[in-house]
Every structure is written in C-alpha cells, then in structure tokens.
Amino acid sequence: xxxxxxxxxxxxxQHQPFPFRATTxxxxxxxxxxxxxxxxxxxxxxxxxxxxxxxxxxxxELPALRMMRIGSDLLPLYTVPEAKxxxxxxxxxxxxxxxxxxxxxxxxxxxxxxxxxxxTVLASDNPAVVERAIEDVEYHTLCARLMGYGKTFQDFKxxxxxxxxxxxxxxxxxxxxxxxxxxxMLTVENDEISCSLDDVLQARELCPIVLDxxxxxxxxxxxxxxxxxxxxxxxxxxxxxxxxxxxxxSQEGLIPEQGYPDQQTLGVSKSKLRAHADxxxxxxxxxxxxxxxxxxxxxxxxxxxLARDRLYAYSLQK
Length: 318
Known about the structure:
Strand order of the largest sheet: 1-2-3-4-5-6-7-8
Number of strands: 8
Number of helices: 14
Shape: globular
Strand content: 5-15%
Distance between the termini: 14 Å
Helix content: 40-55%
Radius of gyration: 20 Å
Order of helices and strands: EHHEHHEHEHHEHEHHEHHHEH
C-alpha cells in the first residue's frame, strides 16, 4: 500500500521547501505581451524545477510513501484563451524539465496524479462547460505526456468528479471526445452531494472508479467496508492496476476522536462535514481506511505529507 499526499509538501516546520507558484488572470491581462510571456515562462520553469526537487526528495523516502498529486497550476493559465497561444513560443524549452520529472518518478516508482478542479465537468448539460472541461483534461494530459506518460493504461491518473446534470450519459458522450491518452489516464470518483458510488459505477467500463470513503459517508451516512459487493466492480474497473482510494475525515471538533460518527446524532450539516481536517485524529476511522489493503490511499487532509506520515506511523503499530 502506498500513501500519497496532494500538491503541497511540508517540512517539519510546516514550510514548503519546494513551493509551486501561480498567478491570476487579472494580473496576467494587465501586462503587455512581452511581460505576459516572461511571467508565465518564469512561473512554469519554477514549478517544474520545484516538482523535480520534490520528486527527488520523495525518492529518498520509503517506497510506501512515494505517491503524489501534482497541482494543476504547473503551467499557469494554460487554458486561458489569451495565454495558450503564448505558450507555443517557449513550451519546447520546458520539455527537458518535464522529461526529467517523469524519469525520476519512474526510476523510483513514484505514483503520480492530477485532480482537475470542480469546474471540470464532463457531465454538464451546457456544451460550453463540456468544451472547457475537455480542454482542461487535455491540458493535464499534455503535462503528463511531456513527462513521458500516457503510453499504457493508468501509468498516470487524472481524476475528476462526474457531477453534472447530464449524468452518466453526458459523461460518456464527453469521454468519447477525449484523446486516447486522456482516456487511458482518466478516473472518476464519487462525491458527497450529487454522484453516489452507485452513480459513478456506471462508468466502470469506460474508466477506473476512485472510491472516496469520506464522500461516501457524508452522502450516505454509511461506512463502506472492504467486503462490500461493489468492491469487486471497483477493482475490475482498474484492469489489473492497483486501485486508488481517497481518505479524509471531517474537521476536529465536529466528530468524536474515537468510534464511527453517526450523522443523525452529530447535529452537524453535511456542508460542514464535507470540510477536511488537518490530521487523522480518529483511530477508528484510521483502522477502517487501512483495512482496504488492496488499495493505495491518497491522503486528503490539510497537513498533507505530515498527516500522511502520522497515518503511516500508526499503520506500523498495528
């Protein structure tokens, strides 16, 4: 089992030694053309250099800890209409930086992924939203391809939600418009509001299903177990690749520090229960998550690798 973290790496002082940079569309548009190119090139190069340093550091950690979600701002504003054409003037200069990131990850068995944001909705009933979602998925695919991925099924994971009024039918129609590389990388997860696990399982013939056990609890007030009959369908969707699940818990003070929380007795709204804690403070829930022994776990709590490290240390005590 690998335990991963998302986007930010913290040192023991809770600082980021390899920070990723971003910019705003407003700032970008306030500049002239030459300044725009300079801005997005410098941020892109910084991000790729720091990704490499992050991966080099991960390579020194235990194999079980070599799993990371890369932030989506690797190439800032890439899909913004005013920015995308400018990238063509220097993107080739970044190829070696991308390539060495992929090389160090593969050499050290570091499992990588992206998670496009909440507005990447392939199942929208708005064609313009679907068009932008496809463009965003293909942007993430481009970054993965430049790192040397997209050659085999699930050699890299790009995970999204299915939520959208067009449902599975709309998701399928949009999925079929993706490039072959995107189709090989895409996964879909259940969410806390609109798409249950049963909903996303409709996509299991198209792409792997990522089980988010916290989302499932928030939506269903049920703690799904490794022997649930749906586990077989989830694992089959991965076609022999080790499946990934997401694990987070509600914020400190909202749920007890031991035992399985029951939403009916908590008196807390689902919107508050959705928010993630800093650390995994409930060992009952930790035991539950770690019982999914056939899965790698992406740790989705605010303290990132620091929380992951504590969960790993706890697992060694069992």
